[in-house]
Design goal:
This protein is 49% helix and 5% strand. The chain is mainly alpha-helical. The protein has one domain. The two termini are 40 Å apart.
Length: 76
């Protein structure tokens, strides 16, 4: 949950400002126009479906196998 929201950039270059308490208006869920949300959803689904079709890297499989073996030893 977002508790503070950074202030707008200072007019003085290089000056840092403290965050202020967020109002309920600032804590509102972000939203996109429906066409943008639809396009993003389609692109994300396409990207992740392609990613899921790729083989798991051998190094990752070895790590998982080692963890599995260690779990068997630790838990009998």
């Amino acid at each position: 949950m977002l508790l503070t929201v950074p202030r707008r950039p200072s007019e003085t270059p290089g000056e840092l400002q403290e965050p202020h308490a967020a109002t309920s208006k600032e804590l509102r869920e972000p939203s996109f126009p429906p066409r943008v949300a639809l396009c993003l959803g389609e692109r994300l689904r396409a990207h992740y479906s392609q990613l899921m079709a790729e083989p798991i890297p051998e190094a990752f499989l070895q790590i998982l196998d080692e963890l599995d073996q260690k779990g068997r030893v630790d838990h009998g």
